Amino acid sequence: MTLGKGPCEVSSAFYQRQQITILGMVLIYWDNNKITREYIDVVSEILNHDSKFVHDAIKILVSKRKTILENLKTLYCFNDGGKHFASYETNNTIISLIPELLPNLNYVEWNRFAPYHGKADCDSHFGMLAKWMKQIEKVNNINTIN
After folding, report:
1. Which of 5, 38, 68, 129 can pair with 27 through a Cys bridge, CB separation 3.0 to 4.6 Å?
2. Are β-strands 34-44 and 107-112 bridged in parallel, bridged antiparallel, or unpaired?
3. In this predicted model, what pLDDT tens digit does every residue of 79-133 receive, in sequence order?
4. Which residues are within 8 A (CB) of 76 and not within 5 positions of it... i.e. 6 or more apart?
């Protein structure tokens, strides 16, 4: 047995893979008197985590989960300390765009976690994603997000 050693691969296989980024979001809401967690991962070829990426990801989230979100009266947003979240553009997306997309919303609150806290629902979800990817890559090559 060997610990700390990854699978053997030639450098050409590593460098020919498509690079992607993932913005993970979790919706936590009450459904039939129980707390429901729904994980949404936005996968993109755009590698720079900027405010536009956050803006576009939130628009995707709202459009995909409109039936859940359209009756919300109050929304609490939490995010980590990533630079793409610490901007006026992201502030505008959360405070102005979301209420525009969800007209029944009366109140939006934006909260930021300290950098590198590693304790939120999204962090544990990314741990599971990494584990699943390692298991999948043992038997299949993943060459594209499509």
Report:
1. 38
2. unpaired
3. 877 777 778 888 888 889 999 999 999 999 888 876 666 566 666 766 777 777 7
4. 109, 111
